[in-house]
Amino acid sequence: MPAPLRIAVLASGRGSNFAALLAARERSELPVEFVLVASDKADAPVLQFAQSAGVPTTVLDPRGYSDRRAYDVALFDRIGASKPDLLVLAGFMRIIDGEALKPWTGRMINIHPSLLPKYRGLHTHRRALKAGDLEHGASVHYVTAELDGGPVIAQTILPIEAGDNENTLAARLLPLEHQLLPAVVALLAAGRLALSEEGITFDNQPLRKPLRWKDGELVR
């Protein structure tokens, strides 16, 4: 039987997506081992949650470094020491230096609350509403030097309802994020996804458009 996929998680806040991953593992849906939760904020609730679950944690304060690259190199050195197979950004609220992340290309994913390539960056719910969009969603993508611009693996779509505001839209989307991210990680743990210079492959076939979360599973 293959060894569990070793995962390090980077988060800056409460860590609800990490909690979703942990819950999926406890339900025996994810053959993974969480080797580290890292954060840039010492008071991030995700750290206490990880510690209570027996997952090692580390904190590195950006204020102790001269620039972004120096910080990111130091952070990834710490992460690398835990020997993860996959890095999952789950609410990590920093832009990562392109040179620092190069060694992790194809081994780092992020979940972002929009239907990429729409609304990279912050305030995605507000921007979708302001644009008059009829639907919103979340995307899991490989991380590259381009902010929220890496190849998109999978998406979940949510209709925008009359009367939605920024808070209600975010609240309705979050449970879908908690389903999407573990489903993608399960595919990675099974070796069904890969990234090359030509793009993403799924079951050894080119993935021409993102997988979609539908009726409890990811489909082409």
TrEMBL record:
The keyword Transferase applies. It is an enzyme of class 2 (transferase). N(1)-(5-phospho-beta-D-ribosyl)glycinamide binds at G15, S16, N17. Belongs to the GART family. Its EC number is 2.1.2.2. Catalyzes the transfer of a formyl group from 10-formyltetrahydrofolate to 5-phospho-ribosyl-glycinamide (GAR), producing 5-phospho-ribosyl-N-formylglycinamide (FGAR) and tetrahydrofolate. The record marks D148 as: Raises pKa of active site His. It holds the Pfam family Formyl_trans_N. Residues 6-185 form the Formyl transferase N-terminal domain. InterPro entries: Formyl_transf_N, Formyl_transf_N_sf, GART, GART_AS. It comes from Dyella nitratireducens. It catalyses: N(1)-(5-phospho-beta-D-ribosyl)glycinamide + (6R)-10-formyltetrahydrofolate = N(2)-formyl-N(1)-(5-phospho-beta-D-ribosyl)glycinamide + (6S)-5,6,7,8-tetrahydrofolate + H(+). (6R)-10-formyltetrahydrofolate binds at R68, M93, R94, I95, I96, N110. This is Phosphoribosylglycinamide formyltransferase. HAMAP family: PurN. Pathway: Purine metabolism; IMP biosynthesis via de novo pathway; N(2)-formyl-N(1)-(5-phospho-D-ribosyl)glycinamide from N(1)-(5-phospho-D-ribosyl)glycinamide (10-formyl THF route): step 1/1.
